[in-house]
Amino acid sequence: MLNIKITAQKNNIYIVIIFALLFIFILGYISYYELQREKNYLWELARVEGLNIAFSIQTLGSEFILDRDILLEVLDLFQKEGITFIDVVDRSGSVRLSTSEQRVNHNIKINYPGTINYLQTVGVDNQRILQIIKPFDFDDRFSSDLFGYLFLRDKYLLIGINMESYYARYDQIKQRIFFNYLVILIMLLFGIYTIFKLQENLVVKRTLQNIQDYTTKLLENMDSGVISVDENNIIRTFNQKSEQIFQLTRSEVLGEDAEKVLPIKILGTSLYQLGLLEKKKIEQEIELKTNSSSKKILEINTSLLTGENGKNNGMVILVRDISQIKKLAEEINRNKRLTSLGKLSSGIAHEIRNPLSSIRGLTQFLQQSFAEIDERKNDARIILQETDRLNQLVTQILDYSRPKKLSINDFVLAEMLDELIHLLQSEEKNKEISFQLKEKQKSIHLEGDQDQLKQAFLNIIINSTQSINGKGDIIISLDKQLIEEKEMVYVTIKDNGIGIASHDLVHIFDPFFTSKENGYGLGLSIAYNIIETHQGSIKVESEKGAGTKIEIILPARSTRNE
Q1: Which end of the chain is more exposed for a tag (fewer CB within 10 A), N or C?
Q2: pLDDT at residue number 3
Q3: Beta-sheet pairing, 432-439 with 471-483
Q4: What is the C-alpha to C-alpha distance for residues 478 and 371, in angstroms, rounded to an integer?
Q5: Largest Cα span, the chain
């Protein structure tokens, strides 16, 4: 009997050893498989991140790339944490442009020209870097933006992904798996049954925790706002991007009635009523006014949460701020529209000028043939005046549609503006307008075409004087700031005139748009073109009856000298 027990114990030991070895082998295989899967996943994640950045830059199109500086600003805009550098590489592998100045003119080996290349290298600080080399491929082959197309033709976009964080995460996963493996081996000493149970509980717990942690990180790092409400319309999820969009903290909204703390209307109807009660899937763009009175354009997408029995458990709301995308799209469309209108205006102006010359010549001949007492002589004089007026309009149209070549020189901006003020003071004698010129820095110099810039500032200031009825003030402020290692000149022109209605504000720089009876609507359009030609920008703030503020930003140094 004792021998049977000993034999049974020995058999049990053998069975335990066999099961332990089998379990160790299976566990080792599973661990190896999991590590390989995690490694492949992390590598794929890095590749996707780099390709997403490449496609995002490419989506802008060559139409957006005006010069090297703007292209470099676009690359800097997409560089974020974890991105070591973003390069533009030619087909020979030479780095032509980079967010890292040290990489310019370096050579990169492109193993597979014309396709996406993946190359793992070691950086300056012995950091492991995954280089994603993707050729530029624009659909807008016939773009009017010659620089963007020619510069990026046959070029590659190189995204340098810092892999250290991915390897760190991989090492953590590897350590965790090895730790689990060791714990299981120790627990095997106390019995196969206990080991299996504890391992099962541990795996389940860790898996759930990893899922929860991953979901939390995913929500926090998403570029869209994620909001979830339960069936009672109580807010349960409110990620970091949602806080930025709605300018509310989680403590203010979590656990609260969504209708009260976060009212969102879709065409006058509550979003929560449409989604929870009417069970509609919503895909809509809305305009949101935040607590700081700024306006945002949001893209709203909703989906219902259903339980196992099909019962509605709430709703998930995805919110994306597309204000900047809309602004860029409007600017691109506006530039295309103005370019087409400029070409059309130029053609029409040329066609009008030729018959105008004939009309004027014939009218002069008729006027000279009439006697002084003949009433027709005065009619001919009126025709000549209107012909000259129409010819002046044609000249302005040609100036708008065919900007003159820049003649760059260095001049003191305050002196030029002072001349304009004296000129306007002598012409506006029927109004009591007080001009003030304020300089935050003395003797601010500007490199540009002085004559064209003088014309642009004259058109803008004249527009301010015309908005003042009788008596008012025009304040011109000058300042200079260093932005991204570039000296920028700020000119602010502020008046207390009648202001501009909000529905007219978006059209003030459109040619032929005017609210004046005798205006042509070309003054501000010509000014806009001149400022834009000098790589500058104009921003207008105005309200009806509250005056107008125009901010002009110009580079202090001409980009042609850089």
Answers
A1: N
A2: 44
A3: parallel
A4: 58
A5: 153
Report yes or no: 552 and 535 within 8 Å, Cβ to Cβ. no
Structure tokens at 394: 């044609």
Here the tokens at position 554 are 């110009």
Alpha carbon distance 424, 435 (integer Å): 9
191 phi/psi in degrees, rounded to 5: 130, 140
Torsion sign across C-alpha atoms 172, 176, 182, 183: positive
Kindly report the number of other CB atoms within 10 A of residue 264's CB atom: 22
For residue 331, what pLDDT is reported?
A: 67
- Token pair for 380: 């001919």
- In 368-399, which positions are buried (b, 16+ CB within 10 angstroms) versus exposed (e)? eeeeeeeeeeeebeebbeebeeebeebebbeb
Which architecture does CATH list for 327-401?
Answer: Orthogonal Bundle (1.10)
- Please answer whether residues 409 and 450 qualify as being in contact, where contact means their C-beta atoms are separated by less than 8 angstroms: yes
The pLDDT assigned to 305 comes to 82
How far apart CA 350 and CA 184 sit, in angstroms, is: 89
Structure tokens at 250: 């989680």
Distance CA 321, CA 310 (A): 32
- Enter the DSSP assignment of 257: B
Nearest of 516, 260, 561, 287 to residue 410 by alpha carbon = 561
Superfamily of domain 1-189: PAS domain (3.30.450.20)
Distance spanning both ends of the chain, measured CA to CA: 100
- Taking the C-alpha atoms of residue 506 and residue 524, their distance in angstroms, rounded to an integer, is 12
CATH, domain range 409-561: 3.30.565.10
- Region for residue 153 given its phi and psi (left: phi exceeds 0; alpha: psi -120 to 50; beta: otherwise): beta
Residue owning tokens 């609260």: 256
User: Taking the CB of residue 26, how many other CB atoms lie within 10 A of it?
Assistant: 10
User: What stretches in the chain show pLDDT beneath 50?
Assistant: 1-6, 8-9, 140-144, 561-562
Fold of the CATH domain 224-321: Beta-Lactamase (3.30.450)
Compute the Cα dihedral for 202, 204, 207, 210 and give only its sign: negative
Tell me the three state secondary structure of residue 262: coil
Distance of CA 55 to the CA centre of its chain: 14
Residue 528 has a CB neighbour count (10 Å cut-off) of 22
